Amino acid sequence: MIFTSVILPILFVVLLGFLLRRLSRLDEHAFSRLQLYVLSPALVFYSMAGSEVILSLVLKILLFIVIVSMVILAVVQGAGWLFKSGKAERNAMSLAAVMTNSGFYGVPVCLLAFGEQGMIYATMYLVGSSIFQSTVGIYIASAGTRKGGAALATIFKVPLIHALVISRVLVHFEALPPEPFMKMITLLGSSAIPIGLLLLGMQLEKTVFPPLRREAGAAGETGETGKAREKGEEEGLPAGEIEEKGDRENRRNILGGLAAGILRIAGGFALALVLVRFFDLDPLLEKVIIVQSSMPTAVNAVVYATEFNCRPRLVTVGILTGTLGSVISLTLILAWLVG
User: Fold this and answer.
1) Phi/psi class of residue 144: alpha, beta or left (left: φ > 0; alpha: ψ in -120 to 50)?
2) Has this prediction a pTM greater than 0.70?
3) First to last CA, the chain
4) How high is the pLDDT of residue 54?
5) Is residue 117 exposed (0-12), middle (13-18) or buried (19+ Cβ within 10 Å)?
């Protein structure tokens, strides 16, 4: 059964990470740096070092990701204009709708569902997704304040891209490291999957239980609520009107996050199902792409949203909606694909 053989083992590891941070207040930053700079690049390196990996295939997957993401982005922005949402709200919904959790969540799902080759294909998707998220994702979160050239330059700062380029160059010149070093890299890369799931649980705990921050005149209130109250007081609005305005903003955050989280999964699945017919892909790769395109919102989306003050509460609701909903959606999608 798909749920017990694929989804449940992953949920157990994620829950362990959640409880580990919740009960011990473990700082996930060390895990995050280890994953970003060592384990994930090692996973990409040994996956991309195989002779069967073709660079043009990675570029084809990247093109697929760009098409799916830009269509979803256009839908969200168009709906935002239609319902007269503000720029920050539209961009927050866009961020939650286009950033996929193809790494910490997607790679292990594809490994358990489709085996070693499925994991290699999922890693290719992860590389393409990382390129898109580290450029367009940051640009969206910054509400267009970051110039296109600066956003594009972040590609060269992504460790996964370094690992991809180095591995393919070494393969081209038949200069891969000796077997003991390759085994070391493979061992480190294999560790990326369980550590990534633990880190996902820690990040979800941090998202669900954010630390309370005191802001001017609003003890115990967190970011957006405190700022809304402060702005209302500066404008001289009555206390009741300030409260009503804050409640209205919270409702919009919840509804916007719910919509973005659902669109991330349903929209990605529907678009992938249509687009794979126009790409000449291996049948297994088609299945992997459909699954990866149906993943929930990446937890990193709230990191970008917080960094650029792009409605982080809305993005958080999108992450929680998609992650919880994916337990059912992925079970059904995998049952259809595998069965």
Assistant:
1) left
2) yes
3) 10
4) 74
5) middle
pLDDT tens for 155-176 read: 677 788 889 889 989 988 989 9
What does the pLDDT look like over 18-56, one tens digit per residue? 999 999 878 788 888 899 899 999 999 988 887 566 778
Residue 183 structural domain: 2-213+260-338
Instruction: Answer yes or no: is 228 within a domain.
Output: no
Give the helix ranges, DSSP H, for 223-338: 223-234, 239-275, 283-293, 300-307, 312-338
CB 116 within 8 A of CB 303: no
* CB neighbour list of residue 201: distance below 8 Å, 6 or more residues apart: 13, 14, 15, 16, 17, 18, 19, 20, 21
Look up residue 241 and give its two tokens: 């009107």
Number of domains in the chain: 1
Question: Is 71 among the domain residues?
Answer: yes
CATH of the domain at 296: 1.20.1530.20
Question: In sequence order, what DSSP letters do the residues of 71-110 get, joined into one string?
Answer: HHHHHHHHHHHHTT--HHHHHHHHHHHH-B-TTTTHHHHH
Taking only the tens place, the pLDDT of each residue in 215-273 is 333 333 445 555 555 555 555 556 566 677 667 888 889 999 999 999 999 999 999 99
Between CA 271 and CA 265 the distance in angstroms is 10
User: Closest Cα partner for 103 from 40, 34, 39, 9?
Assistant: 40
| Residue 13 covered by a domain | yes
The encoded tokens of residue 122 equal 């999922």
Asked if residue 218 is part of any domain, the answer here is no
Tell me what pLDDT residue 69 has.
96
